[in-house]
Structure formats: C-alpha cells, structure tokens
Design brief:
The structure is a single chain. With 294 residues, the chain is α/β, with parallel strands linked by helices. It has 2 domains: 120 residues, Beta Barrel (Elongation Factor Tu (Ef-tu), domain 3), CATH 2.40.30.10; 141 residues, Nucleotide-binding domain of ferredoxin-NADP reductase (FNR) module (Rossmann fold). The protein contains 7 helices and 12 strands. It has a 7-stranded antiparallel beta sheet. The protein binds flavin-adenine dinucleotide (FAD). Flavin-adenine dinucleotide (FAD) binds next to strand 4, strand 6, helix 2 and strand 12. Flavin-adenine dinucleotide binds next to strand 4, strand 6, helix 2 and strand 12.
C-alpha cells in the first residue's frame, strides 16, 4: 500500500524508556498500525507530533498530515520536532529514539522525560513499501572517500553512532569530535568510543569546544584554519597530535550537525576559509540556542 509516499504518519506506543546517561533517554516504540517502516540513512530523520505528556496523541491523517497540521490553530496545535532513528527492528515493528534530556521547557524533551509504557505518539517515518528514491538523510560521502571529519553534539550523537557502523571501506582516517553536556554522556560502544574526541562542555556555551576542535584536526584540508583562527596551539584532550598524518589519496568529506550557531561557524570555516566544495560538506543545525526548533 502507498508505494508512492516516502513518509507516512504512523502511530507508535512506548514499550520501554531507559536512561543511558545523565543526558540521554532511550525510548523504544512499537508500531500500532501494522504498517511497514524503515530507515534509509544512518542519520535518517523522523518528525514527532507531540501531545502534552500523558494526553492522547493528535489524530492526523496517514498521508496528508502536514497540510492538516498547518491548518490547526498555532496556539493549540501539537508540537512537531525532528529526531533521528537510532535503531529499527522491522521484524518486531520496533524503533529506538535517543532523546537528549534538556529539561521540561521543550515539548519533546518534556514528553520523553514523562513517557511511560503505553503512551502514544504519531511519527512521520519512512514508508517500508516506498519504491522511489530514498530521502530524509544527509550522509552522502563521495565515492572512494578516504578522509572523514565528523563533528557533532549530543543531539547528533545518535546519527554519528549509526554512521560509525557504516564507514565505507575506502576510509583510511577519521577525525570525530563530539561535544556533550558532561563527562558520562559519552554514550558509544566498541572501537568508536575510544576513537571519538569527547568534549564535555560543562558550563561553556554550546558549540564553544566544538568550534575550537577544528584546530585539533590533522586533515590537510583544514591546515589553514590553525593560522586563520589562531588555533596553532590547540591540543585535543586525548592528545590527538600523535596521530599519523592522514593518507590523502582519496576525497575528503565532512558531516557536521549540532547547535545552529556553531554549525554556521564551522560551515563558514570549511567552505569559505578552506574552500571546500559543497559536495564535500554536509552541515545541519539540529537545534538553536534560546528558541524552539521544528
Ligand atoms: C534532523 C534532526 C535530527 C535530530 N535528532 C535528534 C536526536 O536523535 N535526539 C535529540 O535529542 N535531538 C535531536 N535533534 C534535535 C532536536 O530536534 C532539538 O533539540 C529540538 O529543539 C528539541 O525539541 P524540544 O521540544 O525539546 O525543545 P524546543 O521547544 O525546540 O526548545 C526549547 C528550548 O530548549 C532549548 N534546547 C533545544 N534542544 C536543546 C538541547 N539539546 N540542549 C539544550 N537546550 C536545548 C532551545 O534552545 C530552547 O530554548 C535533531 C534535530 C534535527 C534537525
């Protein structure tokens, strides 16, 4: 059914809620509609339609939900927010989403904080029966990519974890910097956990440490940033200066997603200061300090 619709609005119920770290809550959902859903990219985005914690979800239609949502009175319509599919288990109709717990000011964070088994949520999610071109993700490394720069914060850590599981075989060097609210939020498994340069921000404004980390990178494409931004003396917390120089035989690709102001700075540094082409850089503002974002 609906093979021409890339996304459908499906109803999910909460199966389980677990705290992964001081700032992360994982919620496992199960599909209530019996419809097929999937995930195409490691940073596959979905839209959540959030009611007040503990109240019934909106009943928006399966296909033309966006138009229906737009027509609702902005003063009382439900909040809509973007999240990443962390895991899908189609055989069990299950889905995991890792929510940053940043308090109860934002409707999404508040919803996750209060979520209990059985709570319902409508999610616009890739249709498992769609036969067209996959969409809704930005991870598009060039063929033969050999050097990767991954930069993010707690909101893009779910995507970065998924990206680590799909690193192309041609990649010979990776610089990965992730700013998190505090030590203990380094939620990652296996080799990835030790290869990431974790940047706990504590009281620093979001993005401060991530921007500075541009100076830690050993990628030759970024060498002029050290001079331009006075980052010559930057030494990453895990002393990455001992890393061997990266092999420069194939193309470079950067994937960056974090707070919007930091992303703007990094995008400018990569594209204007370093002259990297658009095809070599994917940058996304995942949230904006001091204002809601949907
Ligand atoms: C493609 C995409 C994928 C995303 N994937 C994820 C994901 O998997 N997990 C995840 O947790 N987030 C993810 N985000 C980020 C998430 O959508 C935003 O953080 C969103 O603002 C949260 O909504 P809210 O209702 O909790 O807060 P909002 O109502 O949007 O904002 C309320 C206040 O909270 C502040 N705020 C928002 N987010 C944060 C934060 N992380 N830390 C501190 N303050 C914050 C805002 O500045 C604002 O002042 C993703 C965003 C995009 C665009």
């Amino acid at each position: 059914m609906a093979t021409d619709k890339p996304y459908l609005l499906m109803t999910f119920s909460v199966l389980k809620r677990e705290r992964l770290s001081p700032s992360f809550l994982r919620i496992t959902f199960v599909n209530e509609d019996g419809l097929s859903f999937t995930s195409w990219g490691p940073d596959q985005r979905v839209k959540l339609y959030l009611s007040e914690p503990g109240t019934a979800p909106p009943r928006l239609p399966l296909t033309e939900w966006n138009a229906a949502w737009q027509k609702l009175d902005p003063g009382c319509r439900t909040a809509r927010r973007s999240y990443t599919i962390k895991n899908v288990r189609p055989d069990k109709a299950e889905l995991d989403i890792d929510f940053v717990d940043h308090g109860v000011e934002g409707p999404a964070s508040a919803w996750a904080f209060h979520a209990r088994p059985g709570d319902l949520l409508q999610i616009a999610i890739p249709n498992g029966n769609y036969i067209g071109q996959p969409m809704g993700y930005e991870w598009r490394p060039p063929e033969g990519v050999s050097r990767l720069l991954l930069m993010g914060d707690e909101t893009s850590l779910p995507a970065i974890s998924n990206i680590w599981e799909r690193i192309p075989e041609t990649v010979t060097s990776i610089d990965c910097f992730v700013e998190v609210p505090r030590a203990g939020d380094d939620v990652a498994a296996g080799e990835m956990a030790s290869r990431i340069t974790w940047l706990p921000r504590y009281e620093d404004p979001p993005g401060t440490k991530l921007k500075k980390a541009l100076g830690y990178s050993q990628m030759p494409e970024l060498s002029q940033l050290k001079r331009l931004h006075g980052l010559e003396k930057s030494v990453a917390p895990n002393e990455r200066m001992w890393d061997p120089a990266p092999d420069t035989s194939g193309p470079f690709y950067a994937w960056v997603a974090a707070e919007g102001g930091a992303v703007k700075f990094i995008r400018h540094a990569l594209m204007k200061d370093c002259g990297l082409p658009k095809s070599a850089v994917s940058t996304m503002g995942y949230w904006y300090l001091g204002r809601p974002f949907h």
